Batch of 4 targets.
Target 1
Amino acid sequence: MASTQVTCRSAAIACLLAVLGAAAPRGDVPHVLARPDGAILIRLPASPLTGDRVKTQLRSGLTTAFVLLTKGRDSEDHERKLGARVEIRYELWDENYIVAVIDGTGRRESRTIDSYAHLVDWWSHAPILLGAPSPLRQSGAVAVTLEMVPFSPEEEADTQRWLAHSLNTSSSRAASGQGAASPQPSEGLLDIIIGTAIHRQAILSFHWDVRVEASPPK
Amino acid sequence: MKTRTISLILAVVVTLTGFAWFFRQLSFVSVGLAANSEVQAALRRSLSDQKSLARSDPSHAAVYRQRFEEVRLLLTRMEILSLTGRKLTSALEGTLLALVALVIASGSIIYLIEHRRREQRLVQLRESLMALSRGEPVASPLGKRRDLIGRISLMIESTSNAIDRDRRRMRSLEHLSSWQEAARRHAHEIRTPLTAARMEVARLLSWAGQQLPAEQAALASAQASIFEELERLRAFTTAFTSFAMLSPPRLVPLDLARFLEDFAGTFASAWPGLRLESQQGGGRCEVMMDANLMRQLLVNLANNSAQASDGRTGLLRLRAWREGKQVLADVADDGPGIPASVRDRLFEPYTTTRQIGEGMGLGLSICKKIMLDHGGDLDLVSSERGATFRLTFPAGDELRG
């Protein structure tokens, strides 16, 4: 019923497995749960966090965002989309993970997790609210997509500013032979190039097709 | 498609490919340096060091923390650069490639337009040369552009003008030469019977004196009258002869301005009622000329001016100046000028504005011949008042090379 598809531009083996439709263990899929009170939640599998690339990315110190998107159909057979986001940043000084969950209702909840093992444990057990009340049909098929974005908008803007400033300053110095920075005609073009190139984009993507399950009461 | 166009396209493609390859190597190096794993490892070690220092020296923990944050920020940026480096490189490559392509394309378009224009101008140039070969006058057909084709065009125009000028000179020379030959024959035909007639008249009057002693006075008067008329005929043939036997010039380098100044001084009182004035011109006025012939020319012109002034006080201005490869001189009077009816044939022999018997009309023809023999020319130029004759000489230094 469920299948796991992992796509990764750089990981050729993972791509090959995905193309061949390699079967994943049954427990390695997300569970979309419809609670009796009408809320719909998702519990993610541990597998997205356990890959080497993800582990390296999580330890980089950047704010890694996992963007979750589910697509299903409501009782009137209209397509409905629900989403949530999990932001994880490894705090290099304190050596712990700061996790923020922005659920489907827009509520933000932060926590600090002291180790990678606990992070995986939290990830695979903590249900994330997608919406309340649930617009999705009971037992209906749901397409779940999880994308990993390697840095946050703030980090993106900071790097853009830093690189633009560095290049402009060095080109101004080269042009004037002094330290004073003055606007150059090429700055606008350079800013556009930097703004276009240093841009948040998912580097990993996971996809599952599951069904909405009934959740036991709280 | 022409070979030239194919070559151009090939050159553009090779240039772009070469540039792309070169820049790819360059950008890989630069981005690789920015996202170098060893740099990142060093930064991570620095983070670890700051933490260790903070632990071993808690009193300065805040300082180490601040340094840690600075390095962490740098590391963050490096991480992002390493994640987006390839895209950044591609964007830079693409932009620079587009710019280079734009420059090359613009250059190629300009080249092609210029090439087409050049081809059109070459066609015009060829037509000019054809016209020149047919002996037709050529005006510069290619505007005022000073490129190679423009300069060639100007040279063709200049050559055409020179050929035209020489042709006119040759026509004038041939025309005057035929008149000279006619004058020489007339002089000869008149002079021979004139001499015989003079001798026969003398013999006849001598015989008559012996036969009629009482008529000596009447015979002497008749003799004087006949000899006077014969003398007029002799003077007539002498004028013919001087025109017909005009000697070729013996050219020596002389400063024309100085020569005119000397002439004005020497002949200052030669013509009562005509004042000579020499004016300063400009530039070097060295020409190759025969001073005697030139003096004869100036005397002829001054004679004409003096006779045209009709008893009034007149002024004759002499001025020489350099103009390009020529030396020009104006001889201008303030008299009544040349009547329009004779201007077209002014330099033809026997053209005169005087009464019959007052002149042969050979003076200006002789002047023209003298100037043509100098490789120059003599023309009447328009002026507000009086008559102005322009003498044109090739510059002396140009003749000597």
Note: Strands of chain A lie at 4-8, 31-34, 40-43, 63-73, 79-91, 96-102, 108-113, 128-131, 141-149, 204-214.
Target 2
Amino acid sequence: MTNKIDTDMVKHVANLVRLGISEEEAQTFSGQFSSIIDYFNMLNEVDTENVPPASDTTNNTNVLREDVAEPSMSRVEFLDNAPQSERGYIKVPTVLGDES
Amino acid sequence: MQLHTLTLREASEMLATKQISSVELTQATLQRAHEIDPKIQSYVTLADDVALEQAKQADERIAKGKDLTPLTGIPFAMKDAISTRGVRTTCSSKILENYVPQYNATVTQKLADAGAVLIGKTNMDEFGMGSSCENSALFKTRNPWNLERVPGGSSGGAAASMAAGLCNFSIGEDTGGSVRMPAGFCNVTGIKPTYGRVSRYGLISLVSSFDCIGPMTRDVYDCATVLETIAGHDPQDSTTFNSPVPQYNQNLNKTVKGMTIGIPKEYFVSGMDAGVENAIQQAIRTYEKLGMKIQEVSLPHTQYALPVYYLLLFAEASSNLARFDGTRFGLSASENAKDVIDIYLQTRHEGFGDEVKRRIMLGAYALSAGYYDAYYLKAQKVRTLLRRDFELALSSVDILLAPTSPTTAFKLGEKTNNPLEMYLSDIYVVATNPAGVPALALPAGFSNNMPVGMQLIGKHLDEQTLFQVGHAYQQVTDWHKQNPVIGD
Amino acid sequence: MTQYEPVIGLEIHAELQTRSKMFCSCSADYSNAPEPNTFICPVCTGLPGAMPVLNKKAIEQATLVGLSLNCSINEFNTFARKNYFYPDLPKGYQISQYDLPIASKGWLDILDDTDSPMRVVVRRVHLEEDTAKLAHEKNYALVDFNRAGVPLLEIVSEPDMRTVEAALSYATKIRAILRYLGVNSGDMEKGILRFEANVSVRPRGSSELRTRTEIKNLNSFRALTRASAYEIERQIKVYENGGEVVQETLGWDEAHGVTISQRGKEDAHDYRYFPEPDLPPLQLDRNWINSIKNQLPELPDAKNRRFMEQYELKRREASLLTAEKSLADYFEEVVSKSKSSAKTVHSWLTGEFMRYMNDSGQTLEDITLSAAQFAQLIDMVTDKSISGNSGKVVLNEMLNAKRNCDPSQIVKEKNLAQVSDTGFIQEAIEKILSDNPREVEQFLAGKETIVQWLMGQVARATKGKADPNIAKDLLVKTLEARRK
Ligand SMILES: [Mg+2]
Ligand SMILES: [Zn+2]
């Protein structure tokens, strides 16, 4: 399969990861993406019938912690790192819509 | 006395016998860093105050003779992807340029508990995305062996600081060769431990299922010492192993006679520099002289390692980097943002470099509806095959031997315009990370006055054999003892 | 004209009441946090490098819920990242479960609008983390991460409900079960339990599934019923006008009683789920699942059946008690300590006692009256040592007293003991009849109903202490005597 990644697709994925990009950047990325994705398409040669996906190499299972509450970190330091805060809250610009 | 070429072990002995204090050693290291590093630019931050305070405390520990470890009082450098409480941690990105963590990574804490002295934080490709350190958004690090050349990446600053004698050991992080490749380019010893051997808690994630923190040192002995300190189960990282950490250095001198080295035939095809190949062949002959058997093995899916590695990297990174949104820490476009979407778009546009942008967009693509099966899932399946390749090959031999790169360090700017060609420079080091197996990089000679690196790849959790075989090599060679003359 | 039939499915979000959060050790008791952003750590605020560690208790509680809804527990469980950007989601992804949830394919029997039993299929139960709390101000928003990372259970039904009443019945029952299990307080005002309804309509008799809309953030039973009813009507109108229903997410405007379209999404949700690489999978073995099964308490349905049988109650009577486990337990305790019949205890409990709770806005947890003393009071009425009315007075006294007190003491203090001394009652009757000659005339003229009025006068004059049966006997006899 060949996937030409046009500028519309570039803008679509840029929006998915909330990345502002200019028209010019979209053009540049479009060219680069197509050659990279072309290269990835070599995986199609590999027969993966009956091969399970591997998302983990440790084979760990059931790593759990006891339900014990512990003291929190410093709010002052947390808010010091924040660009904007107010009355102990993190402050952000107007929120439109509901994404969740 | 040349303080800056001391091994960790030598420095530790001098501290223990009170030939020098930690404060003196630390001051000398910092002074050299302030003099030399402007040429190399290996450090993003020099933590003079923290270092001197820790050195003072180390001296008190040494004076009392209590709680001493091999690292007490030893100056070290930390890759800037690992959180250090109170010390700026940038990941060499504009988006974190002024971020000061309010907590320590587990590795940072373990080193502090051992009494090691944090000199500073080292430069890297932004968020670990690169193979030359040229993708740092702050500045480019140079190779101490030739200032026109790259140190490799992404732990380029870590390798360069080590090679230039600006610390006694250095902590790097290897997602797909990021310790081994720069170690090879800079004539440094370094290990990518088994995935899960060292806690990632506090390491700013690039690829959660590949990332491995590993030390960079002057020799195998030091490497084993540092790994022993930082390895082990961490209740805050569910992907760490529960098994105990061996005392690696106790078995370092065991003979390698009769052991078998596997040579993956797929790694010795076209594309490798003659000088590199020559050095590696010589290393193989050295091992033969030590009584080891050499056997050709096959890793049949090697050519697919690169697409598997990059696809999975893009996917996980696109998610891991979502938290850099300008609302809680780091760079923020909150001043001009008209709404919250705007703050995301602007912050991330300004804060991320081109390589980061490319990768997170491609990651979203590989995970998005309609492409998931063809890219992400397919890569996870081929990953299983890569892992089986290593298991099978390592079932008939003790370790594998391969170069760390097809070439020696290339020139700055040589590959920056072609992302795909840059990706290809990682061809020998990326496969181990999807497979999770450990690999030790060590100096193997020179080609045109630039270092050549080789790597030994071992079985899951068998760092011990890697150290043993690596140490045997360093007993009969002195490549690792060569130091660069820092030019202008 | 086409008759339309609603098709409703519910998604129920229930916070689990663990001590610590899902993936970190911060307290999960956010509604009692002293200040915003005080129950926080690197993990639940999404600081760079922080990693999740799974809370064992959350897994146990989720399994309990799955089992109580007749689900099969999946022995192999994984977590997944759901990727989207929102300021209440610190990591830019929510750790949730996707293709391998903790429980799936269960069912719950409910009563529909005609009180006939029906079965709702529970598609899945999965665990995820709650988001932070967002307060919208005029030109900005404020974020409090105290709630971020609290374990949240998502219970998803199939679109099996055909009426708003059935949906309400299902939601009510889920809430009761969660409270029985002790995993959720059922508090909807605080958002500890919240609903989402998927609604579509189709011509009656058809089996097609038409385009549905999702109504989010329904924070009360009232909102659930009103919003679903509104949406059903709206969709029917759309079809009647020849239009098409658009698949979209809606909000519920409680003040205006309308559903409103959330801002249109340029990119239809593409959450890019993939396995969470920071969390190894869960392998739940049979023995462990059985050990959780053994912790299951008697659930509302079983309790209801037992109450009907053991206490000879009608279904409605039993379900009044079993809706809340604490009430059912209290009932059983009173019955066990009382000599009166279970029916009598039931009518006291569901009568005056519940009236008191409703009027005072108290819950059973606020009540200090011990079962033993309640039983003692009921028995005093049963054996006629006080009148029923006096019993109500004493009960209210005891409930108001906010402490344990002896009902016989109150009876003595208030002089409420019932009198069967005929001399004392006769005296009172004589006085009433001579004070009310007109009413006596009316009786003699044949208006027998006046007896009731005169009985009231007797009760008042004797302060309720006169045994009503004796009093009535005497009153009628005395009146009849006047005929001669
Ligand atoms: Mg959900
Ligand atoms: Zn927390």
Note: The two ends of chain C are 74 Å apart (CA to CA).
Target 3
Amino acid sequence: MNDIPTDEELVARARLGDERAFALLVERYEPAVAATVIGMLGPGDDADDVGQETFIRFHRAIHDFRGDASLKTYLVHIAMNLSLNALKRRKRSLLRFVRGEDDDHPLEVPETRPGPDARVESLETRARVRRAVMQLPEHHRAVIVLRMFNGCSTRETAELLGVPEGTVLSRLSRAMKELEKKLS
Amino acid sequence: MIDLEDDRFGDGALARSLRNAAPHRFADGFVERVAARLRAQHSRVPSFDEVLQRQFLRIIPLAAAASLILGLYSWWGGRAISSSLIDAALRLPAVTIANAYTTDELFVMLGGSD
């Protein structure tokens, strides 16, 4: 018999105020939210804060969650929107001091700290790949994060970013070429 | 035509590297930090502005319904003496040059004269 509670069961219990059920949901979807937020913002306190805020927003809206989309898609959507807002804030505060920067590029690329998932591939390679992703323009990075880090389909990526599927594919193609160049 | 389900990017070495490089966790204790923030929010006393805003949002539907009922009531009673829908809803009598110089209409409205 399968004892692992489904998302629907956990959501129903969390609605009734079961903190343990909500904690299980956080645990279950931390990887998807982390891939989105850290992929977009780089590791650090900023990303951690946005990750927490993602789940806080979900908790606040849990009574309105109808399950039309999967919980993963729902959370990734919140995480992506909050990450893009955080990037805007970051740019605004940096642009107060730095003039003439290209808006579409990150002003600073944070060093990647190895996470606890560093087993399969070497830490160095992962760090290089993550740094290269962080150097991509924001809209290309968003596609890579959703499509490659999160395993979303082209259609899901298009829906999450609010762009046509063709745009996702062309951004993906350009981003992959750019990454190839950076990593070769 | 673009094949929208084209997955030519999904199988290469670069795609594999990207999938492997995906971050999977925040710093240790993330679940506890979320729980602590939720508890802090629940125990926080709402500010006066927030309470006022909440009460205001509760009152809006009642106020709108009361205005609608009063408007309909006025329109029903005043449709004979008013020239337009708005005038009737506000119980304003039709204004003409003749009745502008007489107080009869006013007495009729106030019920003071037949």
Note: Residues 1-5 of chain B have pLDDT under 50 and may be disordered.
Target 4
Amino acid sequence: MSSKSLVTIKGIKEGLLFVLDDEAPLTEVIQDLTYKLEHTHSQFLTGPLVHVFVRLGKRSATEETKQSLIESFSARGNLIVQSIESDPIEAEPVLAAAASGMKTFTGIVRSGQTLHHDGNMLLIGDVNPGGTVTSTGNILVLGSLRGLAHAGIGGNHEAVIAASHLRPTQLRIADIVSRPPDEWGFEEAFMEFAYLHEGVMEIDKLSRLHRIRPQLGMSKGE
Amino acid sequence: MGEAIVITSGKGGVGKTTTSANVGTALALLGKKVCMVDTDIGLRNLDVVMGLENRILYDLVDVVEERCRLKQALIIDKRFEHLSLLPAAQTKDKHAVTPEQMKKIISELKQDYDYVIIDCPAGIEQGFKNAVAGADRAIVVTTPEKSAVRDADRIIGLLEKENLTDSPKLVVNRIRPNLIDNGDMLSIDEICSVLAIDLLGLVPDDEHVIKASNSGEPTVMNPDSRAAIAYRNIARRILGDAVPLMPLHQKTGVLQRIKKFFVG
């Protein structure tokens, strides 16, 4: 077991707050929890009824997780589990979900048409002026991007927009809006991508993508 | 059993009615039985361009509301034995007809004619839906202007959802080669790469077209007009002939590239 404690117990007004480590495997966390309940902290945990609140951090609160936690607590009759909660979803789980899969679309997104996908999207075809592609993850266009693209909807600032021919009417990443070419200083771009650098949209060659966003895919190695 | 072709554009004033009149007449000159249908109810023009305004007795809405039979409303153009026109009503609006009613009329016309040319009104509302309802194929007309190309793109998107037998074909109208050479007008290559549909014809800007529409004689009847040749070529391509694109001006270069695009 690592030296870092996997279970932190805090006293709060309503009772006891258990903060569980969200990186270690669940079985280890439960092991540590049981150990603490039965040995090291047993003196605090006997006596009158105590309300218990459990924070799971970034670990998702699935039924299975909840069940095994409640079982551990039920060993102590005076501990009443009030809630088992994960942290509210932030940008990172979206990125993790986005990085895990890529949905491929084909066809031309014409004026007045919109294409949305939750996660990474690859469009084989063009986005024409007046057409819109939106995604919670990254947007890759194997074709001409002449319309509007909005990547990282929901606040993912790490998202990128790449296209074989990047000539959009407007680009948006998370809540940042940018429009070419006056803001970027070029007229046409081939095989380039847009990303956010300290809250400002920047453009670079696709060949430098792996340096700027190394987490986007698996490195090809040496 | 004939074929119904809708001529549409989204944007107004790009030459839908002119194209309808000329392509229809050109097909009739090639010996096909043609009926032109004006679906621009309330703003009819095709009868004026064809010089048949004074012969209208009944119109499309009269047929729909069964005040007359379909045959009675058709105007037979006396200059060409195979050409007829079903005029639109000028007093009603687009809601006087439903897509189902249009479908019925068009399929009835297809029994008797080789080609039914449907002149579509501008816009994407009821009038467009009516015009497209009975069509088998579509011709999208645009001009080398950004706004016209945008609207054509929108229309192509809408047409792709219709049950057409073939993908829409493109006619670029009112081309001014000098402006394109100077970079002041969208090039044909640019238009084709955005719209990504087959090119059916290029029509140069021609004063004869304006004269012809005011005199009620379609341009195709004028052998001096360059637009007339372009329209005749379009008609032949509709019939399935492989007709090379005519030079827009004497210089090559742009043309070679267009040809390349079209052939290869």
Note: The first helix of chain B runs from residue 16 to 29.
